């Protein structure tokens, strides 16, 4: 009975992992990537730490895109229509920056 339950649990876990997750591996060079290896060894949750770094990077790229778009819009601010677009971009930029703060404060236990 115990073996059957264990097998069922294992099959359920495998099914979940196959349907809901993706496994990604990286190979690090012991000499060239020593700084990365050393940094990762200091983290209790390497997965959480890496995910947080990637989320921060995605947010920073989004902010950069918005800032460029905002500057381009401000260049065309001579017309009334461009003003409302600039205002919308400013609001979006503020929202993304607030999200970045929340992400930065977030836990790395994921």
Strand content: under 5%
Distance between the termini: 34 Å
Extended strand count:
0
> SSE string, helix = H, strand = E?
HHHH
Question: What integer value in Å does the Rg equal?
Answer: 22 Å
Structural class: mainly alpha
**Poorly predicted residue ranges:** none
Biggest pleated sheet: none
Oligomer: single chain
Query: Kindly state the mean pLDDT as a whole number?
Result: 86
Observed structural traits:
single chain, 110 residues, mainly alpha, 4 helices, 75% helix, elongated
Q: What would you note in describing this structure?
A:
By secondary structure, this protein is mainly α. The protein has one domain. Helices cover 75% and strands 0% of the residues. The protein has 4 helices and no strands.
SSE order and pairing:
Elements lengths: L1 H19 L13 H8 L4 H30 L4 H26 L5
Helix pairs in contact: 3-4
Give the gist of this structure.
The chain has 110 residues and is mainly α. The chain has 4 helices and no strands. Helix content is 75%, strand content 0%.
């Amino acid at each position: 009975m115990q073996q059957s339950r264990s097998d069922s649990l294992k099959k359920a876990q495998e099914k979940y992992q196959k349907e809901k997750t993706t496994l990604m591996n990286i190979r690090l060079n012991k000499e060239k990537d020593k700084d990365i290896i050393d940094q990762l060894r200091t983290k209790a949750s390497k997965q959480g730490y890496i995910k947080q770094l990637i989320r921060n990077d995605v947010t920073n790229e989004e902010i950069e895109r918005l800032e460029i778009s905002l500057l381009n819009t401000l260049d065309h601010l001579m017309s009334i229509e461009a003003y409302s677009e600039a205002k919308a971009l400013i609001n979006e930029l503020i929202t993304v920056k607030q999200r970045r703060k929340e992400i930065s404060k977030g836990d790395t236990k994921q």
